[in-house]
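Q: I'm writing up a methods section and want to include an example of the input and output format. Could you take the sequence below and give the corresponding predicted structure tokens, formatted cleanly so I can copy it straight into the document?
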Amino acid sequence: MMSKVYPDARAALADLLRDGMMIHAGGFGLSGIPSLLIEAIRDSGVKDLTFVSNNAGVDDAGLGILLKTRQVKKMISSYVGENAEFARQFLAGELEIEFNPQGTLAERIRAGGAGIPAFYTKTGVGTAVAEGKPTMEFDGETYIMERGIVADLALVHAWMGDTEGNLVYRKTARNFNPMMATAAKMTVAQVEHLVPAGEIDGDHIITPGIYVQRIIQCPVGFEKRIEQRTVRKLEQA
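A: Here is the clean output for your methods example:
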């Protein structure tokens, strides 16, 4: 059986990337983002990419580094307020954006992974979000139809994984990563701790290895950025 474990991000993505792909990028803010895999995409030079991500990182981290190199053609996101370059490209008409309410985005990804092509929601009815979308009446209320999303590639970050691709997430990093891992033709995971198959308690596994085709281990001491550091001022003695 071929091993799912690859030596580094570049090797894990080497034969998967192509221009014009749609890619899921997990995480929330800078928490749980697949930063090493994003850097490998930057180094590969592929372009015209569509990224599905809750947000677009910041100017010098996460998906922000791909916006800086102009490798991203379109973003499907719910929040983009921390990235000045994102705003500049959008306002200049250089970047396509498909805004989604956050819950709708999450459900579109979950639906894609569950094989559900579309669903109806009240969120966005009567707003710009509903423009051009089919509507339906249920119990006297108007709902809009949203499509499920299945990407060409999903990039996820997990706290722990085993050599079979079973994954465990921690805290905020669990937000978008698990559903994205199920909703793509190919899933590549970067993990902080890689253990032999069977070492993770089955009750603790969040993403079963059947969804994960390739896995890399983050090097010791790799940087996990804090998006906004908030500290309490010391009180005067």
